[in-house]
């Protein structure tokens, strides 16, 4: 709301936001990392955790896609790697996370969704947090068999401006191809094809699985059964975080 003239904000919206902030003030701070292969449900569970604990949701994939769409210098550099299912360079993503964590909405902590994805990124994150005198509380590992992921990824539809995610079979919108809330059209991601998924999974096993070991050694990892239906995964997340 930084650039909004409060006179123009409807009273009901203002009161709702005040009530939300009041409730948030009694919630404990939390700094969480969500790790899992493409389609494991990180983006589906994040908004639920965010609302429950008043955290900011920092998804490097969403930030990079926004930069690609806006054709910023960062987006131009990231586009090719993303379309090929490869990881973007560590320096680029570390820079955007460092900047994003300073936002006021991250005051009570954060959910990192899709970061860190390499051991170098995890080490850089440790340095950043050490400088702020804080540390990661929990790493949620969305453990799932690769075989389940193709159907999830190729059936996914997204509302780009809100990040709302649908699935033709598992979470269909009320009207096919249309966002439930705004009525705007849904899109499919360029990298959500079976062929690119194969490469994204290779990158996950080679570069991101070692990050799970990195945090396991610190005793921070909680394993989730991410193959279960979304609501059951939410219950597991609640248990881990309570
Ligand atoms: P990113 O956007 O992070 O993609 P990802 O990690 O591949 O994860 P996804 O968004 O595909 O999956 P998700 O786990 O969020 O699944 P979702 O909840 O939507 O990264 C994209 C690219 O950006 C990377 O390839 C890389 O190039 C670059 N990048 C990003 N971060 C980077 C970094 N740190 N370093 C370097 N490069 C980086 O679920 C999928 C579908 O399944 C949905 O349709 C959903 O409705 C459905 N679904 C979800 N849960 C369930 C369930 N339990 N049961 C049934 N269906 C379900």
TrEMBL record:
Signal peptide residue numbers: none
Any one of the GO CC terms: mitochondrion
Any GO molecular function: AMP kinase activity
Domain Adenylate kinase active site lid, residue spans: 156-191
Keyword Transit peptide: no
Matches recorded under InterPro entries: Adenyl_kin_sub, Adenylat/UMP-CMP_kin, Adenylat_kinase_CS, Adenylate_kinase_lid-dom, P-loop_NTPase
EC number: 2.7.4.3
Quaternary structure (record): Monomer.
Xref: PANTHER family: NUCLEOTIDE KINASE
Family: Belongs to the adenylate kinase family.
Protein name (record): adenylate kinase
Organism: Glycine max
Gene: LOC100814972
């Amino acid at each position: 709301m930084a650039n909004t003239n409060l006179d123009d904000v409807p009273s009901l919206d203002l009161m709702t936001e005040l009530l939300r902030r009041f409730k948030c003030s009694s919630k404990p701070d939390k700094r969480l990392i969500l790790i899992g292969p493409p389609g494991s449900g990180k983006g589906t569970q994040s908004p639920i955790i965010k609302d429950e604990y008043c955290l900011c949701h920092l998804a490097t994939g969403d930030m990079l896609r926004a930069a690609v769409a806006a054709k910023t210098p960062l987006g131009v550099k990231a586009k090719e790697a993303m379309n090929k299912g490869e990881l973007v360079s560590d320096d680029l993503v570390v820079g955007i996370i460092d900047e994003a964590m300073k936002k006021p909405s991250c005051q009570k902590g954060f959910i990192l969704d899709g970061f860190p994805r390499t051991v170098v990124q995890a080490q850089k994150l440790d340095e950043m947090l050490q400088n702020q005198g804080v540390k990661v509380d929990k790493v949620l590992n969305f453990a799932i068999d690769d075989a389940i992921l193709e159907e999830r990824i190729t059936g996914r539809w997204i509302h780009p401006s809100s990040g709302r995610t649908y699935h033709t079979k598992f979470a269909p919108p009320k009207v096919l191809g249309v966002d439930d809330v705004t009525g705007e059209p849904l899109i499919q991601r360029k990298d959500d094809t079976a062929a690119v998924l194969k490469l994204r999974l290779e990158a996950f096993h080679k570069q991101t699985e070692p990050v799970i070991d990195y945090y396991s050694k610190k005793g921070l990892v909680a394993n989730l059964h991410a193959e279960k239906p979304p609501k059951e995964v939410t219950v597991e997340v609640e248990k881990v975080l309570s």
